[in-house]
Amino acid sequence: MSANRFLNYKNVLAHASSTTSVAVPVTGVPTLVMLVEGGFSGLYLLGPYESDCDQLIGSFDNIHVTKVEHWGKPLLKVGTNNAEHFQQVLTLLCDIADLTQLDSRSFAESVEEATSRWRSLLAPSAALSGAAERGLLGELWLLDRILGIHGPIGLDAWQGPKRELHDFSMGSLSVEVKATLARERIHVISDLRQLEPSVGASLYVLSLQLQPDGSPSSGGLPNAVDAIRERLRPDANRVARFGDLLRQVGYDDQHRTRYSSRYKLRSKPSLVKVDHSFPALTSAGLERALGMEAIQRIIEVQYSISLEHLGVEDGSPMFLELFPWSPSNVLP
Questions:
Q1: CA 324, CA 332: separation in Å to the nearest integer?
Q2: Strand partners, 171
Q3: Could you write out the DSSP letters of every residue in 52-67?
Q4: Which of 157-161, 206-210, 252-256, 307-311 is least confident?
Q5: pTM for the complete prediction?
Q6: Going by C-beta distance under 8 Å and a sequence separation of 6 or more, which residues neighbour residue 253?
């Protein structure tokens, strides 16, 4: 991009803050014009309207592409009316101008090529929330442990991304993973079925207490993903499957920089068996208390439970019987 041919962002803001619109030609052939609409109403590039422009009209969600009449001729108008996007869109419009004037592409071809480079702007996908980030980190902690014991085949136990009933399922053992920043083992349960054991399987809740930590040795989500990929590296098919599972839970490598938080374990992980003494609300229990008709009218249930002083901690014989010790690459 030849910066001296264009308005800079400071000048765009100055023009946008006025009450009138400003049209600034972009030096080169064919004639292109940068249009800054007053009152922060819009930032656009105007170029020649040709037959291949028709397919671009209304093609994008966050970039406006329309046909307009200016100076007695039809033009293609490309840009945005969202002032929050002005800085990013200015770069996009400059790319379009360079492709048109310097690379001799048609204006329509330039719009299409430049926008294809900016798909992350035009169709952004949301990063995980903080709670979802920590929840995924907790699941990767257990997955890392399982892979350390069983090798890449252990990936098959991770069922959470597939929206199965429990996060992990291994024969007669099911595990629901819960991660919290609280100083006590307080976890949110968001589904009546979440704490119902599968037929023929014992169900445990793995409770992880996380604590923010800025040291380089602490664990963060991108590093955890890399560590799991390294565990899976001998099995290319499962490396690919791991990527698919991450996408199903909403993790995308392009958002790595957004996951800058780092954590360490506040306490030893704890396994709590879900049995008659476990503090759980289930469909069966509520049916006995309220009756079937009332249960059918309950649409959603969310509640918090305390698992403080329940279960067995990592390192105890019962914990190690289910999950033998393996060095953690996720939360060292």
A1: 16
A2: none
A3: GGGGGTT--SSSEEEE
A4: 252-256
A5: 0.63
A6: 222, 225
